[in-house]
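Task card 7
Instruction: Convert sequence to structure tokens.
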Amino acid sequence: MKSNPTPCPCGRINRRTFLADFGLGFAGLALGSMFHRDGIVRSSRAAEVWLPPSGQPFFPPRAKSVIWIFLSGGYSHVETFDPKPALTKYAGLTFDKTPLENPVNSPLHQKRFRSVPADSINIRDVYPIIYPMQVGFRQHGQSGVGITDWWPHLATCADEIAFVRNMWTTDNDHFAENQMHTGRHRLDELQPSIGSWVHYGLGSLNDNLPSYVVLGGPTNSTTRFSVDAYYLGPQHNGVTLAIDPKKPLPFGTRPSGVSAEEQANEFELISKLNGLAAVEYPQDETLRARIRSYELAFKMQMAAPEVMNLGEEPAAIQSLYGMDKDSTKLAGQRLLCARRLVERGVRFVQVYPSLYGTWDSHQKLKENHEKMCASVDKPVAGLLKDLKQRGLMEDVLVVFCTEFGRTPGLEQRGGGKDGRDHHPHGFTIWFAGAGIKQGTVHGATDELGYHALGDGHYVTDLHATALHLLGLDPRQLEVPGRKRLDIDHGKPIWEIIS
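Output:
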């Protein structure tokens, strides 16, 4: 058995250890990651010592990648994917004047609600005057799912989608955008985002691109948590890319006047210096992440511009995503880019097709939602159709979600007369693609769209469903010393899994 090298009298490592560590340090980071991904690295002491994930699924996966589409601000579930004709039937009446059960009296109201503001405004979501639906709806597809008339393109994909109509969350302000991605209320300890868990568990299928890419976000300085790895380490944070072939990543292009050879020499020097620092500070996660970022940035100089060159796509494909019209161009670009990224092995693409808070319709809901639905309807439908025609529906899971729904009652603050407030008690999201039971409607809200009926699904059930389809178990991903609550793990929504 080899004896451990004797440390130098000064407390530093001896020359032999230094040379071995330095020789494997920088290149070994990438090589080790690749070995882990391919299932080559295994420890003989695995049963004795906790090790981070190997990069391999825990069980056979149904999906290889996820495109996670998030609409910031909270779209109205009753004007999108959970139409409620009772709102129109009883419009103008208060909850207690209808023959229906008053939803405010339900024990679910306090059970699933946790407000940050004082009790004096803790009832901001309880507006008792029923506000009618602002759009018509029809049944679509063989499943006969009700979708409002603001989604004519997506309605043609109804039989590809699994709608989950009984979602709920606890935060009634816009920190709920973070809660949707981390699973935690703003008053609780932070948790890593769902994309970071995927990165941590599986790594990338492409050594020249990040495993976790963010397009169009974070949407605001307050929503950084939505893409943050927190205690998993900064190397698992989401990497924000711009849809610009000339500059997809800040400081990620070679400066003018610097040749490729000169830059390669610079990176070689940086590699050596980083290797020295890595030996000196082996536990510095930030340093290790910086080392990885330098190496990845160098590789991305060729890979990222190619991905972002959407002009390579045929005109018909660009039109399919709505890139030929100003109203749909932004969403179309981001969703087409997401498809190109998953094609190249990126595991998790978090897409914000709309700007921060633009779905937040406290006033002028009809005007706002008609415009916002039109801006994403064709691009999202185009993504589903494109994935299907390329055979990628077998490999890619699409998640479409928001932070909460909107109140069945008319928001009256500030003399409001045509909007809805935030509503965490019940709302709708949907899945499509790999491992999903097509043409499914799961769960329901009550007749007024107020409460998610039954047990409902807290936001981490979305996480658990996506992780399961990727072959991951959130409990097996748990980090020692970071015990998570049971609700943090969530449960897969088995009813929508094929």
